[in-house]
Amino acid sequence: MARNLGRFISLSAASLLLVLNSNGQATLTGKVSSSGKALGFSATVFIEGVAMGGTTNDQGVYEIQDIPAGRYSVVASALGFSRSQQSLLVPSFGSVELNFNLREDFAALDEVVVSGTMKAVNKLDSPVPVEVYSPRFFKANPTPSVYEALQTVNGVRPQINCSVCNTGDIHINGLEGSYTLVMIDGMPIVSGLSTVYGLNGIPTSLIERIEIVKGPASTLYGSEAVGGIINIITKQTTNAPRVSADAFGTSWGEVNADIAAKFKTGKRAVSLVGVNRFRFGQRIDKDGDGFTDMTLQDRISIFNKWNFKRKKNRLFTLAGRIVKEERFGGDMDWEADLHRGGNEVYGESIDTDRWELFGVYELPMDEHVQFQFSANGHTQNSVYGDTKYNAEQRVSFGQLLWDRGLGERQVLLTGLTLRYTYYDDNTPATATADTLNSINRPIHTYLPGIFVQNKISLTTQSKLLIGIRYDRNSLHGNILTPRLNFKWNSLDKRNTFRFSFGTGYRVVNVFTEDHAALTGTRDVIMTEDLQPETSINGNINYVRRFFTRKEAIIGLDATAFYTHFYNKIFPDYNTDPSQILYNNLDGFAVSQGVSLNVDVNRRSLKLLAGITALNVYTERQGVRERQALTEQFSGTWSIKYTIDKAGLSIDYTGNVYSPMELPTQTAGDFIDPRPSQSPWYSIQNVQFTKTFDNGAECYLGVKNLLNWTPWNHLQSGVSYLGNTLDPFQQNTPPNELVFDPAYVYGPNQGVRGFCGLRWTLN
Q1: Coil, strand or helix: which one is 90?
Q2: Nearest-5° Cα angle at 641, 636 to 647
Q3: Does residue 596 sit within a domain?
Q4: How many domains does the chain have?
Q5: Is 450 in the same domain as 542?
Q6: Phi, psi of 732 (to 5 degrees)
Q7: Residue scoring higher pLDDT (215 or 697)
Q8: Same domain? 67 vs 144
Q9: DSSP string covering 122-176
Q10: Which of 75-84, 209-218, 229-238, 700-709 tops mean pLDDT?
Q11: What is the pLDDT of residues 338-372, one digit of tens each?
Q12: What CATH number is associated with residue 39?
């Protein structure tokens, strides 16, 4: 009996061991480093095919728990480094160690990108050229908004549109900001009414990377993606630090603070919260024209993102953001209680309230089908002198995305989309044409669409991407946008060639896109019913990597581009100085040019520099005219030198722009005393950063080292704002210079010091 009992116990123990072996889970740990230096807080390790991963702590160590037994492919990646991939057999239980050594690659050709194809792909494999910029790039010149952070990206220029309230937009390859689609996590959030203000208040501590696609992408994203895409990718809750903070101030009195924190709610939800606060309340008038040089701003933004754990690791994320901002610029004596909306003292006051909601839900089915959605509301209560502009816009967007492989060589991506836009304001844009009995009529726009994209692997070195999109605009009818992309790379992956061709379209609302239509004293006149703009685009891109004997990596990225526009909306400032005439151009417009990026990465020295040559013009009735406020040449650079032993780094960043045609009031016998062209100008910055053992960073530096401002280049007694003594044009004689905030081409903020502190807790 004792023997039988012993056998029973042995069999029971063996059965229990088998059960444990079949259901056991292991832990994977290791260290990620580069050239012997730990990549703290910056590297991500994930298991391909399984939604499991983790990020490194301050010592470069990662940990992934609860891994089922099996053989996996484990990948380590970090922005600015080549990816490393290893195969690993995970046992049923216990702990496994796997270390990674990443090689620095400033070109970052192996990063994962989603813009351009709407699908996560290796950057090298993407037929669409995508530029990727990490938070490390933007830390070289800390700014309070994404808008300002892009000033050192080649071919991308933040353009100030108003000298008084300092609002602006983002130009890509010479095209105005309304041609640029700005997204958060792939969702079209910042557009229309929020083009000017939506880029403010995105906490930089939550940004994983920014992807930029230059050229039309209407095939995938529809209207507003004519000039290009700026896709702000926020951190995943799985690889975000537990707490991070970044705060800095300037000698002008600007104060900016970002703080983010991660927490768990139960076993199935992880949340990431970020808050941005910016305040500038000091009235400064260094040019002596009686108007503020820098707009007063008070802004708070709160961002919250959730990741939910589901069966079979299906994706479900939900995120939201609220932004509230008060902004003022104008006469130094302006007071809100006394002068807002009146015609005694000129001021521009903009109160903005905005909310956003977006997410992705993967359907519970065998096919890979996702439902992507977003919604936003934007309310603006503003006055520009005695002109009131009160507007409300609500946008809802839904997209059903189906991704499926067709054999070994093809990947099909199809989507059904629906976008609804509600817009209402107090301008003629939403009123009937009857001037005596005008009735307010908000605009309701429905935009259903369907697109198909097929990525074909012709060989191991070449890929072809073909796609087409059909939209049905409820106001303007049918719109078809095809595209074609081809990519080839050499066997050693040091040479990559891309060719792109496509079309784009854009539906225009002048009052939400052109700030000049609201500010100043010029009358706005629509000479006809404005039709959608359409474009044809082609570009050629070549990327080359060199590895020198002195352990340096050199990357070259050259692009030639051409865009031809039909029905382009043309603002005419010159026919009548007191008016802005809007019409569809009777002719065509062209944006063409070449750009070159050069990056060098050698031990302690990193350099990224770029130049862009542009030729942007309109042609009608055989007469060719350069586009106003568009440079013909620009250059940008970012140089970083690190002294590892001292924990010190030095960043030198800057840009340079060639002369631009400016919207002067010269007409007939009247000669505007302000120059019709801007001078060459350059904004340069330097920063020193000290890194401590606990991960904290202290930084200080100087912005605008050359103390460049536009008013320094005007003759004595002339203001770049025009006649600031009579901003309401009550006593200005005919054929005299009138008040004009639209005459602006660069920032009006001079040299200033700054200092700040960053801290991260994993």
Answers
A1: strand
A2: 140
A3: yes
A4: 2
A5: yes
A6: -80, 120
A7: 697
A8: no
A9: EGGG-SS--EEE-HHHHTTS--SBHHHHGGGSTTEEEEE--TTT--EEEEETTB-
A10: 700-709
A11: 999 999 999 999 999 999 999 999 999 989 999 99
A12: 2.60.40.10
The confidence score (pLDDT) of residue 526 equals: 62
Residue 288 lies in a domain: yes
- Three-state DSSP at 430 gives helix
CA quadruple 250, 255, 256, 259: dihedral, nearest 10: 120
Per-residue burial over 511-545, b = 16 or more CB atoms within 10 Å of its CB, e = otherwise: bbbbbbbbbbbbebeeeeebebbbbebbbbbbbeb
Do 63 and 159 reside in the same domain of the chain?
A: no
Tokens of residue 20, six digits: 């444990």
Helix locations, 277-419, DSSP H: 336-339
Tokens coding 714: 């005007």
**Tokens 């865009």 belong to which residue?**
563
Residue 7 lies in a domain: no
**Is the same domain home to 346 and 291?**
yes
Which whole number is the average pLDDT over 652-670?
92
Question: Do 66 and 215 sit in the same domain of this protein?
Answer: no
Q: What is the pLDDT of residues 748-758, one digit of tens each?
A: 999 999 999 99
Query: Which of 46, 72, 101 corresponds to the end of one domain?
Result: 101
pLDDT of residue 80 exceeding 70: no
Specify if 16 maps to a domain. Answer: no
Strands 605-620 and 25-34: unpaired
User: Are both 167 and 54 inside the same structural domain?
Assistant: no
Indicate if the pLDDT at residue 187 is higher than 90: no
Domain boundary residue, one of 101, 124, 146: 101
**Among 221, 57, 212, 324, which Cα is nearest to 557's?**
212
Are residue 117 and residue 87 in the same domain, yes or no? no
pTM for the structure as a whole: 0.83
Distance between CA atoms of residues 444 and 431, nearest Å:
13
Highest mean pLDDT among 654-658, 672-676, 708-712: 654-658
CATH of the domain at 385: 2.40.170.20
Q: 746 with 160: CB under 8 angstroms?
A: yes
Q: What is the DSSP letter of 49?
A: T
Q: Which of 279, 381, 348, 386 is nearest to 744 (CA)?
A: 348
Amino acid letter at 594? V
Q: Tokens 């700005």 — which residue?
A: 182
- Burial (0-12, 13-18, 19+ Cβ within 10 Å), 112: middle
Evaluate if residue 560 carries a pLDDT over 80.
Answer: yes
- Identify which has the larger pLDDT, 37 or 163: 163
What phi, psi does 337 have (nearest 5°)? -65, -30
Who contacts 641 (Cβ-Cβ below 8 Å, separation ≥6)?
604, 605, 606, 649, 650
Half-sphere exposure of 240 (CA within 13 A, CB side): 30
Give the separation between CA 604 and CA 757, rounded to whole angstroms. 23
Range of the domain at 27: 23-101
Same domain, 97 and 120: no
